[in-house]
Each structure stands twice: as C-alpha cells, then as structure tokens.
Amino acid sequence: MLISVGTGRIVVPIKPLGVALKFPRIKFFLACHMVFYTLVRPPSQILRAISAQFRFKSTQRATIKGALFGGLVENWGEYRFYTKTKNQFLQPTYFSFLGLVNIQKFGYPIPTEYDGVVWREKIWSRLVRITDREVLKDPHHFEGPDNLCRDGCRVRICDYGSQQTQTLITKFGERMYKEIVL
C-alpha cells in the first residue's frame, strides 16, 4: 500500500477492498503563517490584505481559505461531479462524507513507460489531439500519469476535483475514454 500525498489531498489505497480513500490536507500551520504575515503589515494595508485573502476561491493554495479548505472543496467537488455526470472517463467516486473523506474505486497506476512506448507518445499526445490542445490549459491533472489510472485496458482520471479539469472532462471525457486504450 503506497500512500500518495498530493498538493491538497492524501490518498490511501486499499487494494484488497478495491477502493482508495481520499482525505483533504488541512494546512493549519501554513494558514497561521499567512495570518501572521497579513497582520504584521502597516495598519493601512491590513484590511486590504485580509479582504484579498477571502476574495479568491477556496481551492487556491496561496490563501488562508485554500490552506484550510482546498482539499475538502476538491473532495466534495469530485464526488458531486461524478454523481452528476457519471462520465466514463472518471474513476468512480462512490461516497463522500462532506468532503472529509472520499471513497473512490481503486485504479492501477499508469507506468511512465508502457509496452516500451513512452507515456508522452502513448497517452499524452492523444490527449492533446483529442482536446485540440485544450488539455494544455490544465497541465497539473493531465500532463503526467500520476492523476490518471488504468481500469482494465482503459485510462481514467482519478483526480478531477478542480473546476478547470471538470470543464475539460465535460467537453472531451467520453471521447478520451473511448479513444485511449492501453
């Protein structure tokens, strides 16, 4: 069992049960650090700095909200997106306890070299072609094999909590699922 620590979440695969548990990373000390540096500004800048922290989306990591709630929001968004769309390209998320823990179907990692063909030639180039290069707008989720998995001979995405990723999947997900076969 190899625990993965991502930017906003921790994934614990439980292979015998066929599931992976996803927990949000709550970065309390980073949030405290941000609060401290917000409050040590000159008094005339404090109010502007505080309002700037809460103006951004809660998934943006460089904010107090992002440090505390980013992974939780991604977990909940991932579950809601799957239950709403049931897109075939999505690795199924069976359950979410308010974003505190997600239960997702276990998927086997995609090796960087598959059947002697490098990852970029086998999968990445197809993603770029299928999406007419729109996949380049979301390189974190698509450019490397870490956020994708194998389900039989099919490729699925197992990290789809961000709005940008969901937009691409809504537009191209069915086609990605059908055209990328290992």
Tag the structure with descriptive keywords.
five-stranded antiparallel sheet; alpha+beta; globular; 10 strands; three-stranded antiparallel sheet; 182 residues
Strand order of the largest sheet: 1-2-3-5-4
What is the CA-CA span between the terminal residues?
24 Å
Helix content: 40-55%
User: Which value, in Å, is the CA radius of gyration?
Assistant: 18 Å
The oligomeric state is single chain
Number of strands: 10
Q: Average pLDDT value?
A: 88
Largest sheet: 5 strands, antiparallel
Following the backbone from N to C, one meets helices and strands in this order, namely EEEHHHEEEEEHHEEH
Which strand-content bin applies to the residues? 15-25%
- Low-pLDDT stretches are none
Structural class: alpha+beta
Gross morphology: globular
> What is the tally of helical segments?
6
List the helices and strands and how they pair.
Layout: E1 4-5, E2 9-14, E3 19-24, H1 28-39, H2 43-55, H3 64-85, E4 93-96, E5 102-105, E6 108-109, E7 113-114, E8 117-118, H4 119-130, H5 139-142, E9 148-151, E10 154-157, H6 163-179
Helix pairs in contact: 1-3
Task: Give the gist of this structure.
The protein is of the alpha+beta class and 182 residues long. The chain has helices at 28-39, 43-55, 64-85, 119-130, 139-142, 163-179; strands spanning 4-5, 9-14, 19-24, 93-96, 102-105, 108-109, 113-114, 117-118, 148-151, 154-157.
